[in-house]
Design a protein that fits this description.
about 10% strand, two-stranded antiparallel sheet, 9 helices, binds zinc ion, mainly alpha, about 200 residues
Length: about 200
C-alpha cells in the first residue's frame, strides 16, 4: 500500500482507453477483433524493448516487502521472479501486474524523471487521498491494464448471446486470463451486469 505518491499529468478514463487500444492496434491488431488473452510476456520482453526502449528484467523483489514489480525511471521494469513465472503460466493477477508496471514505464517514468531534474533531485510527493484519481499514477496504471487486457469490443463480442450459466466475470477471467476481481471491475466500468 503506497501512502505517498507523485501526482502525474491528468488522464481521463476515455483517454486511457484510447491509449490501450492504439497500443494493441499497433502490436497485436488481431486481439481487437477476436476475444483472446494477450501475450503479456511477449509485450514486456519484446515489444517494450523494441518499440519503447524499455528493458524488462526478472529479479527477486518480493522478499523486500512483497513487491511484485516496479518501474525504474531509467527505462527498466523489474518483475519479481515468482510473479514473472506465474504470468508465464497464465496467472491473471501476475499478468495484470506486468501491464501495470509497463504503463508506469511507458507513461510515468519520463514524467518522474523530468520532475526530478526540474526540482534538482527532489520529487514532491502527496498523500494519496490528496491526489484526484485522474492524477494518481496507480489509478492510471490500473485503468490502463484493465483496458489493455480486456478491450471493450472483444469483451462485448465474447459475451454477446452467451447464456449466463455462470457469472460473466468468471467467463471473462477464463477467456482473457485476468483475475475474477479484475473482470468484475471491468464489467462494472463497461456497464455490463455480472449475471
Ligand atoms: Zn503502480
Amino acid at each position: 500500500m503506497i501512502d505517498f505518491i507523485p501526482p502525474v499529468a491528468p488522464l481521463s478514463r476515455t483517454r486511457i482507453e484510447e491509449m490501450a487500444k492504439s497500443i494493441l492496434a499497433k502490436h497485436y491488431p488481431r486481439v481487437l477483433s477476436r476475444p483472446t488473452a494477450i501475450d503479456v510476456v511477449d509485450f514486456c520482453d519484446r515489444v517494450l524493448f523494441e518499440h519503447y526502449g524499455i528493458a524488462c528484467f526478472v529479479d527477486h523483489l518480493a522478499w523486500i516487502d512483497g513487491t511484485e514489480g516496479l518501474a525504474r525511471p531509467d527505462r527498466v521494469v523489474l518483475i519479481d521472479e515468482a510473479t514473472y513465472r506465474a504470468a508465464v503460466e497464465g496467472d491473471g493477477r501476475s499478468r495484470f501486474t506486468m501491464i501495470h508496471e509497463a504503463f508506469h514505464s511507458i507513461h510515468h517514468s519520463p514524467q518522474i524523471l523530468r520532475a526530478i531534474n526540474d526540482q534538482r533531485g527532489s520529487l514532491r510527493r502527496y498523500r494519496k487521498n490528496q491526489v484526484p484519481a485522474y492524477m494518481d499514477p496507480e489509478w492510471q496504471a490500473n485503468t490502463f491494464a484493465s483496458a489493455f487486457l480486456m478491450p471493450e469490443q472483444p469483451v462485448r463480442a465474447y459475451l454477446a448471446g452467451r447464456s449466463a450459466a455462470s457469472p460473466l466475470s468468471l467467463l471473462i477471467s477464463q477467456k482473457f486470463r485476468v483475475s475474477e476481481k479484475a473482470a468484475r471491475i471491468r464489467l462494472g466500468k463497461l456497464g455490463i451486469r455480472n449475471q
